Amino acid sequence: MKVPYNWLKEYVDIKLSIEEIAEKLTMAGLEVADIQTSADGAVLDIEVTANRGDCLSIIGIAREIGALTSKHVKYPQLLKKCSSNKEIEKLIDVSIKNASLCPRYAGRIICNVKIEPSPLWLTKRLEAIGIRSINNIVDITNYVLMETGQPLHAFDYNKISSKKIIIREAKQSVSIFALDESKRQLSQDMLVIADEKGPVAIAGIMGGIGSEIDEQTADIFLESACFHAACIRKTAKTLGLSSESSYRFERGVDPNGVVSALNRAAYLIEKIAHGKSAKGIVDIYPKKFNRQNIQLRIQQIKRILGIDISQNKLKRIMLNLGFEIKQDSLNNIKVLVPTYRQDIRREIDLIEEIARIYGYNNIDTTMPRGQTSSCGKREVEKQTDALKNILCSCGMAEIYTSSFTNSENLDKTGLSSDGVKITNPLGDDQNIMRTSLIPEMLSVIKRNLNRSFSEIKLYELGQVFFENNSSYHEKTYLCCGIAGNVSFFDIKGILETTLCKLGIEDHCIYYKEHKVFTQDCSASIDIQGRRVGIIGEISSNVLEKYSIDEKVFLLEIGFSDLSKHINLSPVFKPVPKYPASERDIAFTINENVSNADIMSVMWKAGGEIVEDIKLFDIYRGKQVLSAHKSMAYSICYRSNKRTLYDEEVNQAHSRIERQLASQLNVTLRK
């Protein structure tokens, strides 16, 4: 917002230099970006925030200066008496079809105007703020716009069909040639000013060529209105068309300043263009804006700002800002907010105004008071840290990927693509929230393989998202992926090491087919009989879609489910007093029998002296019958009471062999 210094001084009696004014405005929250020079003197270039639409005018800035310097604002002269005997009711018919989009519309008819270049003083002022002079009528509307912040538009009265003005939404597939000489296609959600033939202006943004002021114009219809801010903003963005008017309507204009701006322009037109104003004024105002009535508590000011301000000074600040004091008591002040301050809605907003005018630099700096208590990490944070440390010790590197993905990426893995859809995505490649970490893990593995890494070990602890009956759920998942010179036992070892160090003992891995894994290397992870995750080798079909040539092994487990069973309390076991005795057992067995079933039989058959059982070999090949596999286990026998005899160990081992043969139909290998 450019504000000429000489123009500003007409409305507020200030003896401050332009540099001092700039400093005061900046301290009050209106940053002065630059001080420029023009033919009409120095010009302030002020950065106005989006909530301060009232400061997008010379008078608005004058009000700020007046409040900061305790000076009264002098308002410009308005038209008080009409010079024409014609009555406006007989000259024009105005109607509003949608009062929510146009809450107020006012207009005047000014006859016998003389279209000519503007006087030098007007031209210089407009040039100082970057507006090119066109003719006296258009220049006056621009001048009043910058002066009051209220946009105006002048129509050639004789070009209005049937002398009817209709404020309505545009009809489908209608276009208009705007004043920038471009054809604009309108849609039904856009507000227009129309006559009986069609649109003559895009409401709040720009007029049309068909009703513009030219050298032959004799009579004008002068418009001043208040339009819905969001409607103007949406239309301007859709059309790619912005103007000084739309810039102000988007930020909110004063609905009660519509008529005064209209009368100000009429006064200047009579004075400069020698026009004669018709009697009366069109003013359609179906629902008046109520001024905000806010109770300001004295104690609350002290609590928020930490300062004591006398009640008289508080009232003086309020009055200088243009607020009205409705009621005054020892503890409270009731304040009536002017309609041009649409950003003031609550008590805290008034307190902010007091701080601005009182001066932030006048408020002493104080240290916050209160007791602070140190609290350790939450249990889930401790578990997360422990998990990451364990995975890091296994040689894994952590990755972070985006929670946004697309259905095509999920389809590659055969996983459900019914993710949470994003209403307004950044792009088609990020239109849903992921339901699994596997697709992004495979993408990262592919990128690393492309960089010639021979062995890849990665993990991610991230969020996945689900929708269930219009209810959204977010869960934390852990995904580990390895590729290169590795095998299934590497990923299984990482899983077992992690679960062991997290204090989770009652777990098992059993064969279960999954669409993302190969048929013969796919398993489910159970903890205390409940499935919590999957583990296996990625199928060749999936790898082909990602253009991966190496074998890839993955596990995905719900950390939220895992967390319930984690025990980080250290468990100490004494060093065994008595020696152990180990025996190996090897056999062939049907492919469909799981390791979990085999282990269960061995533990039960071995009895109390079985300390540990480990699978150390699986073989499938020519020497083994079709649909069978060869498995080898190492069994550790020990007693915590005495040294075991060979005979006891042999008996327990034989018992295990017999139970395996009878229950699981194994064929022992010697």
Oligomer: single chain
Strand segment tally: 32
- Strands in their spatial order, largest beta sheet: 19-23-24-28-27-26-25
Structural class computed from helices and strand pairing: alpha+beta
Name of the CATH superfamily of the largest domain: Phenylalanyl-trna Synthetase, Chain B, domain 3
How far apart, in Å, are the first and last alpha carbons?
A: 94 Å
Q: From the 3D coordinates, which CATH architecture of the largest domain would you assign?
A: 3-Layer(bba) Sandwich
Described by the principal axes of the CA atoms, the overall outline is elongated
Return the CATH topology of the largest domain: Phenylalanyl-tRNA Synthetase, Chain B, domain 3
What percent of residues are in strands? 25-35%
Average pLDDT confidence is 90
Task: Summarize the entry for a quick read.
By secondary structure, the chain is α+β, with helices and mostly antiparallel strands. It has 19 helices and 32 strands. It is elongated, with a radius of gyration of 41 Å.
Q: What does this protein structure show overall?
A:
- The protein is of the alpha+beta class.
- It folds into five domains: 2-69, 2-Layer Sandwich (Phenylalanyl-tRNA Synthetase, Chain B, domain 1), CATH 3.30.56; 88-284, Phenylalanyl-trna Synthetase, Chain B, domain 3 (Phenylalanyl-tRNA Synthetase, Chain B, domain 3, 3-Layer(bba) Sandwich), CATH 3.50.40; 293-360, Phenylalanyl-tRNA Synthetase, Chain B, domain 1 (2-Layer Sandwich), CATH 3.30.56; 379-563, Bira Bifunctional Protein, Domain 2 (BirA Bifunctional Protein, domain 2), CATH 3.30.930; 581-669, Ferrodoxin-fold anticodon-binding domain (Alpha-Beta Plaits).
- It has 19 helices and 32 strands.
- The strands form eight sheets. It has a seven-stranded mixed β-sheet, sandwiched between helices. The chain has a five-stranded mixed β-sheet with strand order 4-7-10-11-12.
- Helix 5 packs antiparallel against helix 8 (258-272) and helix 18 packs across helix 19 (646-664).
- The protein is elongated, with a radius of gyration of 41 Å.
- The mean pLDDT is 90.
